[in-house]
Amino acid sequence: GTRIIGPNCMGVFWAPSGQDSGLNTLFVQEKRLEIKYSDYSNTVLLTQSGAFSVTEIDRLQNNRLFKAIVSFGNKYDVNITDLVGYFAGQSSIDLLALYVEGLDPGEGRQLFQLARQIKKPIIIYKSGRTEAGARAAASHTASISGSYEVFKSACLQAGIVLAENIEDHYDYVKVFAMLARKIPSGNRVAGVVNAGFESTVGADELKNLKQAQLNPETIAKLNIINRHGMVDTSTPFLDITPMADDHMYADYVEAVLQDPNVDCVFVAVVPHSVTLKTIPENCHDQDSLANLLVDLSKKYAKPIVISVNAGRYYQDFVSIMEQNGLPVYTDIRSAIKSLDRFVTYHLAK
Amino acid sequence: GTRIIGPNCMGVFWAPSGQDSGLNTLFVQEKRLEIKYSDYSNTVLLTQSGAFSVTEIDRLQNNRLFKAIVSFGNKYDVNITDLVGYFAGQSSIDLLALYVEGLDPGEGRQLFQLARQIKKPIIIYKSGRTEAGARAAASHTASISGSYEVFKSACLQAGIVLAENIEDHYDYVKVFAMLARKIPSGNRVAGVVNAGFESTVGADELKNLKQAQLNPETIAKLNIINRHGMVDTSTPFLDITPMADDHMYADYVEAVLQDPNVDCVFVAVVPHSVTLKTIPENCHDQDSLANLLVDLSKKYAKPIVISVNAGRYYQDFVSIMEQNGLPVYTDIRSAIKSLDRFVTYHLAK
Predict the structure, then answer these.
(1) pLDDT surpassing 70 at residue A311
(2) What is d(CA A16, CA B157) in angstroms, rounded to the nearest whole number?
(3) Looking at chain B, which residue has its C-alpha nearest residue A49?
(4) CA distance to partner chain A, nearest, from residue B15 (Å)
(5) Mean pLDDT throughout B321-330?
C-alpha cells in the first residue's frame, strides 16, 4: 500500500542528475534557500526536524553535498530504520547524516542492528539529551528521548559517528561527504600553516591522530623551498610564516603530501597576508592559493582539510575550495577535530 | 626608561575617539583587515600571537568592540601582568581578552593575584595545553606551557573566564563585551524560536541557567499574540512556528522581556521563513525583525542573545543586529553556552 512520511515534516528532496529530473517538495522559497548539488553530491540528510534541514543545507551550501533530504517528523508510518535501510542501498549515496530527537520503542534496537550491517558512514546528532531538552522534544515532535548515555554507547558499538553538538554535525558531514573517496591509510598527520598559533592550537586538538615523523628526503625538499630561511623544517606542523607566497605555500603542502610517512594533511591559512592571492580581486587567478590547493587535492589521494579563519571579505577564496571538493573549516580546531574523527572511523573499519 | 613590547609581535592598536587620533602600528594592509570600532568599543585584546589577533578581529569585525589591541609576543620586557594591570585601570576598557601560549616563571602567580583584585571580566584562551601543543608553542614563542590543569584551577580561583577553545574565546568575548552594561540579576532564562528543534537543542545546553517559570500574566499576553493558535504558551522556550511575522516575533520577545520571572532571554531565528523581513531587500526596513529586536534591546535592561543559523544570504540581517549592540551567534548551542557563561560569571561576583 501507500507509505506515509510525516506528519509534522517538511517534505523530501532528490537532486536531479542526467535524465533524472529530481524531486523537491520542501516548502521553502528557492530564493531564500537554494539547495546546491553537483554530480558529486553523495549524502542523504534524514531529519526529524524540517528546520534542522534548512539550517544544515544553508550552512553547507557551498559544499554541494546533498543528493537527498528527507524530513520525517513524527514517523506515523515510515520510520528511521526504513529510511536508513533504503538509502544505504542506493549506490549514489556514500554517507547517511541523521538528526534525531527521539526513538520509538524498539526503533533504537532496530537502528543499531541495521547500522552494524551497513558499510557506509552514519553520522547522528541527537538532541533531547538532558531532562530540559527531553521536555522540549516531547513538545516538538512528541518524542521520547530516552537515556543519552545508553544511546551513546549503542552508537559506539554499532560504528555510528555521534556528533555531540549541532556544529560538530555540520563539521563531520562535511569531511565524511567530501573525502568519501579519500580513505586514509593511517593516522600520521602533517600540517602547513602561516601563523604559529595555529600549529600550537592544532597540536592541542590531536586525539587519535599522531604527528608524522617527516622523512629526511622531505626535510631536504622543504629546506630548498625555505629560501627565506625562516621555517623550522624539523617539525611536522610547519609554520611557514606570513612571508610565504601562493607558490611557496603549495610547494610546502606538496612536499608533505609526497612523504610516505604522512597519511593525511591539514592546511591552515590566515589569508590576510599581502603575499597571498586571497582577496576577491585575485583569488580566482589560476595560480592563486585556492586553485593551487584544489590542484593538489586532485593530484594526491591523501585526505586534506583546510582551515581559513577570516571574515566575509575572504568568502570567495573559501568558496573556490569548497566548490572544488576541499572541506574548509572556519578554525583550526574544527578542522583538526573533524579530520581526527574521519581518520579514526576509517581505521576502525 | 623606555619599555619594550615584543619581540616577535605585530604591534599595537588604540581606537581613535573624539579629539584622540588613536594609534595603529599593526602591519596588516587595511584593505585586508579593517578594524571596526565605535564609541561603544570597550575591549582590549592582549595576545601572544599577532595572527591570533588578526583572526579574532576579523571574525568579530561587525561587532566593533575592540578599543585596544596589543600583540606582545616573546615578552622580553613588558609582560602579561604589566599589560593587564595597565588596561584594567583604563576607564574606557570594560573587558580584557587574552590569548596566552605560555607564562614565564612567576608570571602566572602574579597574573592570578592581580586578577583577584580586578573587577572587570578577564577572558583567557591558553593553547599549548597538550604535550604536542606545548612543543609547538616552544617553537613559536619559546614559551613554557606548564600544566594546563593547574592553570585551569588557578583561573577558576581567580575568577578568570577560561575559554576551552578558540571559538569559545570569540563567543565569550562577544557576549561579555556587548552586554557589559546589561548585568543579569538572576539565572532564569526564557527563549523565543521559530523552529522547534532549536528549543530542544537550546534546552540541552543549559548548565547554570534555569528555565524560567512564566508569570500567568505573561502567559495571558502570549495567548493574545498567539492568534494562529499554534504556539504552546505553557513552556518558557516558545516555539512560535514559521508562521510568525516580524511584529508577532517581536511581540512574543517583548512579553517575555517584561516578565518579572525572567532574567535573560535568547532569540533564535531561522530566517528562511517567507513571513520574515530577513532578506537583503527588506531586512533594513524600519519594521524588520532585526530593527525590532534592536529596539527591544535598547528598551529593556535584560541581557539578550540571538542565534541566526543561516548562510551568506542572511548576513545583512545579522549585521544590522551586530552593529547595534546585539550579540548574534551562528547556532543556538553557542548562543546559549555564551549566555550561560556570562550570567554565571556575574552571579558569582
Answers:
(1) yes
(2) 58
(3) B197
(4) 20
(5) 97
pLDDT digits (tens, 9 = 90+) for A104-122: 888 899 999 999 999 999 9
Q: Would you list the domain boundaries of chain A? A: 11-178, 188-348
pLDDT at B122 over 70: yes
| Closest residue, chain A, to B59 (C-alpha) | A311
Residue B2 CB neighbours (<10 A): 4
Give residue A145's pLDDT band: very low, low, confident or very high (50, 70, 90): low
- In A, which residues are within 8 Å of B202 by CB distance? 136
Please name the fold of domain B188-348.
Answer: Rossmann fold (3.40.50)
Handedness of CA A158, A163, A166, A167 (dihedral sign): negative
Contacting residues of B for A201, CB less than 8 Å apart: 127, 133, 166
pLDDT at A72: 86
Q: What is the per-residue pLDDT for A349?
A: 83
**What is the grid cell recorded at B30?**
587595511
Crossing angle between the packed helical segments B246-257 and B289-299, to the nearest 10 degrees: 20
- CB-closest option in A54, A129, A334 to B272: A54
Q: How far apart are the C-alpha atoms of B272 and B296, rounded to whole Å?
A: 22
Mean residue pLDDT across chain B: 93
Interchain pair B274, A54: CB under 8 A = no
- pLDDT bucket at A2, cuts 50 / 70 / 90: confident
**Domain covering A11-178 in this structure, CATH number:** 3.40.50.261
**Length, in residues, of chain A:** 349
- Which chain B residues touch A46 with a CB distance below 8 Å? none
* Nearest chain A CA: its distance from B341 CA (Å): 17
Query: Whole-angstrom distance between the N-terminal and C-terminal Cα of chain A?
Result: 38
- Interface probe with B: pick from A49, A55, A145, A277, most Cβ of B within 10 Å: A55
C-alpha cell at A116: 552494524
8 Å CB contact of A204 and B128: yes
Residues of chain A contacting B232 with CB distance shorter than 8 Å: 139
pLDDT at B73 over 90: no
Q: Of the candidates B99, B167, B334, which has its C-beta nearest A331's C-beta?
A: B167
Query: Can you tell me whether residue A117 is helix, strand or coil?
Result: helix
Tell me what percent of chain A is helix, strand and coil, each rounded to the nearest 5. 40, 15, 45
pLDDT tens per residue, range A326-344: 999 999 999 999 999 999 9
CB-CB under 8 Å, A239 with B139: yes
